[in-house]
Amino acid sequence: MRPVNRVLSAICGILVAVGSPQVASAATEGESSTQLVRLGMKSSCWSVTGAKASVATADASTTLAVAAQATSSSQLLEVSAGTTSECTAPVSPGHRYTVASSYSSTAWLHPVLYIYSAGTGWKNWWSDGYVSPAKNQDRFALTTPPVPPKVTSLALRFLGQGSIKVSLEKPTVQDLGSVEVIGMPGELKISTSFDTSKRLVTNEYAYWNSSRTDAISSPTWEMTSGSLYSSSGSGYTGPINAGSPGPQSLRYTNSAVFRLNTRDYGFGDVAVGFQLNVADLTSTAKTPAVAWDGVHIWLRYQSQYSLYYASVARRDGRVVIKKKCPGGPSNDGTYYELSNEFAGYPIALNDWTKVAASVRNNPDGTVTITMTRNDEALLSATDSGIGCPAIVSPGAVGIRGDNARFRFKKFTVASS
User: How many Cα atoms within 13 Å fall on the side-chain side of residue 245?
Assistant: First the structure.
């Protein structure tokens, strides 16, 4: 696959915002269905608007050829699939799909997916940037967010400008199955996935050197400390050490202090959940072992000085909900316990565990945070302004790690 507007091949861990086509999609987690549906390839299934054009099928079942000439270089060309059942693919609400095809083109193309429901008819739905010109058969793939309720069909169109010749070969629609929402099953806001290759998604170098061309930034995640990789369909801390990472985290990851949050700061009343696998707990000369080493979920993250967090996997086997307020001895902040610490919840190393935490504003101005593990409610705490005013404004969400080498997958955010 060649470069696109947001280079698809470089996107490893991507946040998918349901119903928001401007956010990039992700590669699959390697746990998807193998069901493939071919899009209709008959010439009668396709049409071109905005140009003098010809449409032909070199092979009635596999290949489509389009030649189009716009009347001006700025005129928009649209190559659309028909809306009959033989030209579209059936889809199920709540499922994600990958639409893929080999292609060649003489110009940049903008693939767009559109969907059908009885109530609204056909409408544009999902796009993921442009695919570049390709002399020989190259490949593109679009992985969608969960299909909205009541949608039954999906079709493909391309947008382009000027004079273009396009060839598509064997376009397919693959059902990736439904998205598992871990934690409170509200309306899904986002879901993430990671590809199966090991590569750097982003790191603290990119955060602190965002203007440099060698920075590896993510459209979804940002890190003030540590490194995030994709590996075997999950997000991964990499080896645990303490040292300043370079652009590619080749020598050091600094993931002994792992601080990952979403770029989106618009999450208010939500539940954050994911599957967690802790490989081991360690320490470094700069980060000696402490009782609270492990993994924690961030909620209402305003900054590294103002946030809520739920400790879901600690070295000492305790669970607790805390708030950080600006000012104090802990990296210019102070932590306040909103719940008691409860023992008896040790980390099951090298085992996948469902962890989740939710946050919700109350009518009286307080904020309630709840934590679950393996779908069991463990703790609930209400902040009435302990240490500083309750954090009622939306914020980012994320994951904090301390001296913990771990993986995570199926990161979801749903309304609570």
Answer: 33
Q: Which residues pair with 199 in a beta bridge?
A: 230
The pLDDT assigned to 25 comes to: 29
8 Å CB contact between 270 and 280: no
Instruction: Answer yes or no: are the C-beta atoms of 298 and 390 closer than 8 Å.
Output: no
Q: Residue 13 pairs with which residues in a beta bridge? A: 194
pLDDT, tens digit, for every residue of 277-290?
A: 999 999 999 999 99
167-171, 193-197, 287-291: segment of lowest average pLDDT: 167-171
- The residue among 209, 265, 233 whose CA lies nearest residue 396 is 265
What distance in Å separates the CA atoms of residue 177 and residue 191, rounded to the nearest whole number?
13
- Average pLDDT of the segment spanning 357-376: 94
Residues 6+ apart with CB under 8 A from 50: 70, 75, 76, 77, 78
Would you put residue 150 in left (φ > 0), alpha (ψ -120 to 50) or beta? left
pTM confidence score: 0.66
Q: Which of 44-48, 161-165, 291-295, 409-413 has the highest mean pLDDT?
A: 291-295
Average pLDDT over residues 123-137: 74
What gap in Å lies between CA 14 and CA 142, rounded to an integer?
13
